[in-house]
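Quick one, C-alpha cells below. Sequence please?
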C-alpha cells in the first residue's frame, strides 16, 4: 500500500533539477514589470504624491494610486480596516501608497527614485506597552485593541489561595520573519474578454481570487487563480499574496498587459507580515506535588497597523494558553494591540509559539523550585483520553502526548542527563531541556465557515488517475501525500496518480491551506471522491462476476486488482474494470469529493468548547552547551517526538521535523527584527540572521502514531508542530546549564551574556 511508505515526492525531480517553474520563471509576450511605492514613515499624513518626474522616465507605462481602483480599496479579510493602497495616511514603514508599471524591472526601479511624496509626520505607537497606554489617539476603536478573548473557568482565586507554590513571570517573544526561499511573486494576465488570470506564489488561491475580484470590481467567475510552484510559505503566503496579486492585477487591468510583480528580499521583509511579538504575564499555582491548581494569563500580541489575521492568530493562542495540561481553574485574557508597525499575521504555529514559550518555562521553573524532574512534573499534569482540555473539551481518542514524552525521555536518557551537573570550572556549561506541546488541527471553532474542502478525481481509460485538490503545495509535501491517499484508496500504484496545480476554476473553494489542515482536509475529500467513483463501478463487478448484491464494502482494491472478499476465486485487474466501465457501461469516472470538518464549538463568554476536532502532540528535547564567558550557544542535538496520527509518508514527516526544528531554533536563538523609530533596520539576510546548515545540530525525529478515526488513514495534521516546542526546550536547557530564569528570546550571545552577568 502506498500510504505509510516513503515514496518519492511528486515534485522531487522538477525541484532538484531546477526545472520547476516558479512565478518569476513565467513569461508572457508584452509583459510589464510592477513595483511598489512604499511609505518610509511609520505614521504620517500623506500631503501629496508627485509622479510627474517619474513619468518622464522612458519606459514607464503607469503610476497608480488608490484613485485608480475600479472596485473597493479594501481587501476582504476578517476586518476590512486596511486600505489596499494608502489614502490620506500611512500607518507603517512599508505601507503601499502607489504602483509603478514599466517595460523593464530596472526602469521601474529608476522611476521609484523620482516619486516624491510629501508627508506630515504623526507620533507613532511603537510597542505593545505604548499601544495599551495610548487611549487618546487610538489606531483602532476606542481602546487601540483589535480583538480580545477570555477563558474564565473554575475558581481561580481559590486555586491561588490554596497554592503551595505560585510561579509568576513576564515573558517577551520576538518577531519572526518567514524567510521563505522565494519572495512574494505574482503574475497577472488580462484575458481578452475582460476577466483576469493570476499565476503566483501562494497558500490560499481562493483568498487571492476574492481579493482580486473585490479590487477590480469583477464577479468571482471572471477571476481565475492558478498556483505556480511556491517556494515556501510558512504562513507568510496566507494573506499577503492577496495584496500582491491584487496589485499585479490592478496594474495589468489598467495597462491591458501582463504584469509580473516580484518583490526583492528587502521589499518583502519590510512590507510583508511576520510572527507577532508577544508579551505575556503568566502566573501558575501548584500544589506540593507539582499538580497545577490554576493559571492566570494576560497575553498581548503586537498586531501592527491593521488587523489582518490577528483576530484568528490571537484566538488560537488563547485556546492553547494553558498548554496540554489538565487544569480546571483558568483566567486567560488575550489582546491584539494596534501599533504603527508592519501588520503581523500567520506564521507556523499561529499565535501558539509565543504563549507556549511561557507555559513551558513556567513548568520548568516550578520543577526547579519543587525539586521535581521536568519530565515528571509534565507527566503528572498531561492530558489523556477521558480528560478535558483547558477549554473543557472531553478527549475521546488519539491523545499521544504521554507516549511522545516517554519515547523522547527514553531516547535521550533525559532523567540521568538532567541530574548530571556540569563541571563548575568549565567555560562551556552543559544543559538539557524539554517541552511538551499540543496543537489543534485545522481552523477550529474560530474558522468554522471555512472548514470544508473539495477534490476533483478522474480515472482515465488506461487506469491512470488525475487529481486536483483545494489545498496547495508549498514544500510540505501535500501533492505527494494526497496522491498516496488516492493510490491507496483505489489500490493502484502511486505512479499512476498525477496531481495538477490548483486552479480556482477547477476545484470548489476549499478555504485556505493553513493550520496544518492540508493532509486532513484534502485527504478526506480525495477519499470521498474515490469512494464515489468505486461506488459507480459496482454495476461492472455485478456484471463481470454475475452477482447481484455486490456492495462496496465487499470489495478489496489492492495492488492494481479488485478482489471479492467473500469469494477468493473472484478478482479482476483494476484496468479491466475501468475499460469496461467507460466503454461498455458509459459511466462517468470523474467527480468532486466534498468534505466538511467535524464539529467544533467555542463560547466567546467564557472560552468553553470543543475548540478543535482533534489535536497533535509533541515532545522536544534539546541538548546544548553555553559559553559563560561569551554567551555563545552550541546546540548539540534536538530530539523531536511527534504524534501525527499516521505518517502517510514517514520521510516527509521527518523532513517537516528537520525543517521545523531548524526554524524553531532560529526563533529561539538568532532571529531578530530591529526597528529604529519605527523604521525596520533588519531588512535583508545580512542583518536578519537565520540558522544555516553550519548551525544545524543533529535532529532526531521520532514518529508516534496514535490514529484519529476521522483522519485519512488515521492521520492528523502536524505541519506546524515541529517548530513550536523548540524555543522553550532551548530556553529550558539554557536555564538548566546556567541556573538562571529565562523569560525572553532570542538567546543571542548579547542577551545571554546579559542574563549570565545579571
Ligand atoms: N513546510 C514547507 N516545506 N514549506 C512551508 O511553507 N508551511 C508550514 C508547514 N510546513 C510549510 C511547511 C505551515 S505554516 C503549515 S500551516 C503547514 O505546513 C501547511 O501544510 P499542511 O496543512 O499540508 O501540513
Ligand atoms: Mo500555517 S501559519 O497555518 O500557514
Amino acid at each position: 500500500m502506498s500510504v505509510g511508505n516513503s515514496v518519492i515526492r511528486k515534485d522531487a525531480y522538477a525541484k532538484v533539477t531546477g526545472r520547476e517553474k516558479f512565478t518569476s520563471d513565467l513569461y508572457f509576450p508584452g509583459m510589464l514589470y510592477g513595483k511598489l511605492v512604499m511609505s518610509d514613515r511609520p505614521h504620517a499624513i500623506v500631503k501629496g504624491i508627485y509622479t510627474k518626474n517619474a513619468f518622464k522616465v522612458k519606459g514607464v507605462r503607469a503610476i497608480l494610486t488608490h484613485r485608480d481602483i475600479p472596485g473597493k480599496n479594501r481587501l476582504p479579510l476578517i476586518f476590512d480596516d486596511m486600505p489596499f493602497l494608502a489614502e490620506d495616511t500611512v500607518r507603517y514603514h512599508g505601507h503601499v501608497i502607489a504602483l509603478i508599471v514599466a517595460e523593464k524591472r530596472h526602469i521601474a526601479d529608476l522611476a521609484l527614485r523620482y516619486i516624491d511624496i510629501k508627508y506630515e509626520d504623526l507620533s507613532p505607537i511603537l510597542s505593545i506597552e505604548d499601544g495599551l497606554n495610548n487611549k487618546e489617539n487610538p489606531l483602532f476603536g476606542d481602546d487601540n485593541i483589535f480583538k480580545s478573548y477570555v477563558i474564565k473557568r473554575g475558581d481561580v482565586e481559590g486555586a491561588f489561595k490554596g497554592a503551595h507554590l505560585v510561579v509568576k513571570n513576564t515573558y517577551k517573544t520576538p518577531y519572526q520573519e518567514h524567510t521563505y526561499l522565494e519572495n512574494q511573486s505574482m503574475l497577472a494576465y488580462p484575458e481578452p474578454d475582460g476577466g483576469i488570470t493570476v499565476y503566483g506564489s501562494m497558500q490560499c488561491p481562493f483568498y487571492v481570487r476574492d481579493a482580486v475580484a473585490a479590487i477590480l470590481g469583477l464577479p468571482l467567475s471572471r477571476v481565475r487563480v492558478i498556483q505556480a510552484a511556491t517556494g515556501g510559505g510558512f504562513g507568510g503566503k496566507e494573506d499577503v499574496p492577496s495584496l500582491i496579486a491584487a496589485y499585479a492585477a490592478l496594474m495589468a487591468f489598467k495597462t491591458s498587459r501582463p504584469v509580473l510583480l516580484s518583490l526583492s528580499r528587502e521589499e518583502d521583509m519590510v512590507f510583508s507580515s511576520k510572527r507577532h511579538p508577544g508579551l505575556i504575564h503568566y502566573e501558575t499555582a501548584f500544589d506540593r506535588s507539582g499538580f497545577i491548581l490554576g493559571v492566570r494569563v494576560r497575553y498581548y500580541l503586537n498586531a501592527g497597523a491593521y488587523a489582518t489575521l490577528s483576530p484568528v492568530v490571537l484566538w488560537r493562542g488563547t485556546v492553547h494558553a494553558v498548554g496540554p495540561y489538565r487544569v480546571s481553574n483558568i483566567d486567560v485574557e488575550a489582546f491584539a494591540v494596534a501599533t504603527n508597525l508592519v501588520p503581523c499575521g500567520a506564521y507556523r504555529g499561529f499565535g501558539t509559539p509565543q504563549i507556549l514559550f511561557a507555559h513551558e518555562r513556567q513548568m520548568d521553573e516550578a520543577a526547579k523550585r519543587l525539586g521535581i524532574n521536568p519530565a515528571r512534573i509534565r507527566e503528572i499534569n498531561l492530558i489523556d483520553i477521558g480528560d478535558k482540555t483547558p477549554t473543557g473539551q472531553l478527549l475521546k481518542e488519539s491523545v499521544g502526548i504521554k507516549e511522545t514524552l516517554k519515547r523522547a525521555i527514553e531516547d535521550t536518557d533525559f532523567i540521568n542527563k538532567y541530574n548530571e551537573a556540569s563541571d563548575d570550572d568549565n567555560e562551556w556549561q552543559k544543559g538539557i531541556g524539554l517541552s511538551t506541546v499540543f496543537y489543534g488541527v485545522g481552523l477550529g471553532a474560530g474558522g468554522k465557515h471555512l472548514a470544508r474542502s473539495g477534490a476533483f478525481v478522474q480515472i482515465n481509460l488506461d487506469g491512470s488517475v488525475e487529481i486536483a485538490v483545494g489545498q496547495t503545495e508549498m514544500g510540505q509535501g501535500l501533492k505527494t501525500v494526497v496522491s498516496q491517499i488516492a493510490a491507496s484508496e483505489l489500490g493502484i500504484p502511486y505512479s499512476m496518480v498525477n496531481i495538477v496545480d490548483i486552479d480556482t476554476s477547477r476545484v470548489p473553494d476549499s478555504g485556505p491551506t493553513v493550520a496544518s489542515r492540508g493532509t486532513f482536509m484534502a485527504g478526506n475529500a480525495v477519499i470521498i471522491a474515490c469512494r464515489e467513483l468505486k461506488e459507480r463501478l459496482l454495476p461492472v463487478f455485478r456484471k463481470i462476476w454475475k452477482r447481484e448484491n455486490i456492495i462496496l464494502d465487499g470489495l478489496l482494491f489492492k495492488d492494481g486488482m479488485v478482489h471479492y472478499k467473500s469469494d477468493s476465486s473472484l478478482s479482476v485487474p483494476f484496468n479491466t474494470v475501468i475499460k469496461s466501465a467507460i466503454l461498455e457501461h458509459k459511466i462517468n469516472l470523474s467527480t468532486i469529493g466534498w468534505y466538511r470538518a467535524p464539529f467544533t464549538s467555542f463560547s466567546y463568554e467564557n472560552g468553553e468548547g470543543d475548540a478543535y476536532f482533534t489535536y497533535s502532540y509533541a515532545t522536544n528535547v534539546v541538548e546544548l552547551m553555553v559559553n559563560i564567558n561569551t554567551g555563545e550557544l552550541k546546540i548539540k542535538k534536538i530530539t523531536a517526538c511527534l504524534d501525527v496520527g499516521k505518517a502517510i509518508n514517514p520521510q516527509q514527516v521527518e523532513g517537516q521535523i528537520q525543517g521545523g526544528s531548524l526554524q524553531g531554533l532560529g526563533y529561539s536563538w538568532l532571529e531578530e527584527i530591529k526597528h529604529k523609530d519605527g523604521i525596520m533596520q533588519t531588512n535583508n539576510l545580512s542583518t536578519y540572521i537565520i540558522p544555516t546548515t553550519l548551525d544545524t545540530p543533529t535532529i532526531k525525529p521520532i514518529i508516534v502514531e496514535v490514529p484519529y478515526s476521522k483522519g485519512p488513514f488515521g492521520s492528523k495534521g502536524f505541519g506546524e508542530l515541529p517548530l513550536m516546542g523548540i524555543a522553550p526546550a532551548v530556553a529550558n536547557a539554557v536555564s538548566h546549564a546556567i541556573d538562571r530564569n529565562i523569560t525572553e528570546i532570542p538567546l543571542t550571545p548579547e542577551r545571554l551574556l546579559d542574563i549570565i552577568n545579571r
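The pocket of dioxothiomolybdenum(VI) ion (ligand 2) is lined by residues 203, 233, 235, 238, 346-348, 350, 514-515, 720 (CB under 6 Å). The longest strand covers residues 292-304.
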